[in-house]
Amino acid sequence: MSHFYASIPTSARKTVATARGHKSTGLEVRAASWSGAVTVTMRHCETTGRDTFEVWQQPHHGRGCHVLVAEGIVGQEDAA
Fold first, then answer.
1. Which of 19, 25, 56, 66 has the fewest CB atoms within 10 Å of its CB?
2. Residue 62: count of CB within 10 angstroms of its CB
3. Which three-class secondary structure string do you get for the chain?
4. Do 27 and 52 touch, CB atoms closer than 8 A?
């Protein structure tokens, strides 16, 4: 059974695109424009039993920056 789930509810598609990830694989989602990209990565930590996330700005086709925007534990309000 999948542990992570992603969807694209708003796009030019007529249907909602989805993806699944397992505890062992995690899940990465990337959205981009000609100005750069944003990547969200979710992982499961077996040691703590918690799901973590990272949000990065990244270059796309040579434009944009590589900056960690936020990271934290899913479900906790004190994300950085």
1. 66
2. 7
3. CCCEEEEECCCCCCCCEEEEECCCCCEEEEEEECCEEEEEEEEEECCCCEEEEEEEEECECCECCCEEEEEEECCCCCCC
4. no
